[in-house]
Amino acid sequence: MRDVRKEAAEGLAWIYRHPSLRPLALSTHGWFLCSAITGAILTPYVLRTVGLDAFGLGLILSVGGVGGLLGSLVASRLGARFGAGRVVIVCRALTGLSWALVALSGRHWDGWLLLGAGQMLLGLSMGAENANEMGYWQAITPDRLQGRMNATRRSINRGMLVVGAPAGGALAAAIGYRPMLWVAAGGFLIVAVSLACSPFRHATVDADQTG
Q1: For the chain, domain boundaries
Q2: Which pTM was predicted?
C-alpha cells in the first residue's frame, strides 16, 4: 500500500535539499504570491482607475496572450543560447517591469498604451520563462521522483494563490489599486534578484541532463 505522506516528504526533500532547485522553488512560490495579488486587482484597476470598459479589458488581456505565444516560440532558442537559469531570471525581472508599466497607465490613450505594453511584456516574459523553467525541473529530477516533485511544489504554489488573492484584494481596498500594483511589481523584482544571487543562475538544461 502506498504511503502518500512518505512520497510527499520525498518530493519535498528532493526539492529543498537541492542547491539549485531550492532557490528556484522558493522564488516560484514568491512569484505565485505576487501573481495572485495582481490577478485579484487587475480587472477592477482597469475598469475603475484606467477607465476602460469590458471590451477594452478583453483587448488588453488578448495582447498578453499574443505576447505569451511569441515568448513561447523563442523560449527554446533563448535557453540554448543563454542557459535556462539566466532566461528565467531575466524573465522574472521583466515580469516586475511589466507590472510597473501597468501601474503607470492612466485614463488617456498614452496610459492605455502603457497598459497594453505592460501586458505584452508580461506575456512575453511568461512565455519565454515557462518552457525553460519546466525543462530544467524535468531534466534534473530522477524519473522516480517526477510525480512527487511536481505534486508537492505545485501544491505549495497553489497555496500561494489562496493566500495572495484575498490578501492582495484586501490591501488594495485599503491603500488603492495603483499602490498595490507597485508593491507587487517590487515583489517580482525581489523574486528575480534573489534567484540571481543563487546557484540557479548557472543552470543549463543540457549540462544537467548529461551530467
Answers
A1: 33-201
A2: 0.90
- Cβ neighbours of 58 (radius 10 Å): 11
We find that the CATH architecture of domain 33-201 is: Up-down Bundle (1.20)
Tell me the torsion sign for CA atoms 133, 134, 140, 145. positive
pLDDT at 107: 87
Percent of the chain clearing pLDDT 90 (strictly above): 74
The counts of H helices and E strands in the chain are: 8, 0
Task: Name which of 139, 127, 152 is nearest 15 in CA terms.
Answer: 152
> Alpha-carbon distance 13 to 7, whole Å?
10
- Coil, strand or helix: which one is 91? helix
Report which of 23, 56, 45 is spatially closest to residue 199, judged by C-alpha positions: 23
Give the span between the Cα atoms of 162 and 152, in whole angstroms.
16
Instruction: Using the predicted structure, report yes or no on whether residue 188 has a pLDDT greater than 80.
Output: yes
